[in-house]
Request: fold
Amino acid sequence: MLAFDLGASSGRAMLADISGGKLKIKEIHRFDNVPIEENGSLFWNIDELFSEIKTAIKKANGDFDSIGIDTWGVDYGIIDKKGELRGRVFNYRDRRTFDAKKLDIYGICGIQFMKFNSVYQLMKSDFCAGDKILLIPDLIAYFLTGEMRMEYTNASTTNLLNAKTHELDDEVLKIAGLDKSIFAKMIKPGDSYGNLKAEICAECGCKSVPVIAVGTHDTASAVHAVPSEEDEFLFISSGTWSLLGTVIKEPILSEQSERLNFTNELAVDFSIRYLKNIMGLWIVQQLKKCYDMSFDEMVIEAQKSEQFKYFINPDDEAFAYPCDMDKAIKEKLGVYNMTRGQVIRCAYESLAFKYRYTIEKLISVTNKSYDCLYIIGGGVKNELLCRMTANASGLTVYAGPDEASVVGNVCVQAGLKNRQEIIRNSFDIKTYMPENVELFNKAYEKFRKELSL
Reply:
């Protein structure tokens, strides 16, 4: 199986094989995902991304029987009636939705309000007769197969699906002023978009294999890779964004849920990923650009600095867009003589305490308790943050697998029924026990007081 996992900053292609009760994955291609800034707008470089995908297919040397693609949510391309991509593909961090006003649709869709949600982007787009919109993984699948479809897990991020029926909601479309005809036919995880087109096979030197609709939203694939034996568990999918939540059977559409801005997105099996978007490692990634340091060097700098001296709210809009993050943090705090280590430690500790705060709110809505937390995704490589999260939350943290989206992607391609057992047998899952709980409890109260949470 060939799995593509595209994130907001990079993409990777992995070849996977399942044998002897173990899953083996091998990276064959990795590439940057660098947005384009043009005339004050921010776009994805879709042509470059698709070129990298074809490069990966060539590198696989035809040694695969299916392809699966997962990416970030909300963004889309517009296909005209001639079947061609019309214009650029906007990046969700583009400022054209900066003035978006919240629609009164939470009780229907159950999706948290974020100004860049697809519904608000679509309200800024102009459509011509015959146009179709395709979310990013569906767009790539279209380039590969010629078939236009919209996969459910990614579609659930658009704020356009009814949370109970999982279909496009007519009332929401009417409120947003959108025509149902612009959307492609829906497809479920495990179904096939179609086979690779002949011209793709000829260019890449491969056979015509099916492109499988996996959990095409990367978080859906990642959650599918959580090795928990329980049906309902607490997780953080840790990457550019931190998606913190649990898995439940039915959506929660209460006023409290809306007020706390939790979201009800679809999991691969059509259960609900009840979660909240937290800014995540985006802040750390932007600091890395400022300092021109490796992540390991940043951790060392942070560890040299005093604990619990400065706090920020990671979800403050001041940090949401590409910027000089060092300057943005200092300006927010009103402290301009901070060392790099102090800034980095501030980012990590603030993120860990925001996790605890969000877990407390999650528990208040679901009326469920948890004694452990699963961290999956690239963030599991950051042992400092994993340890801080265990200490801040007071929960045992199980960290891994790090390539969770790829693992979940492959599990859907293979149709695995016993995936949790196979994942536990295949990957190193690290355990972090909470330490210094009383010290972290005091610091957490300081965090809440300073940020008025």
Q: What stands out?
A: Residues 340-366 form the longest helix (27 residues). The chain has a mean pLDDT of 96.
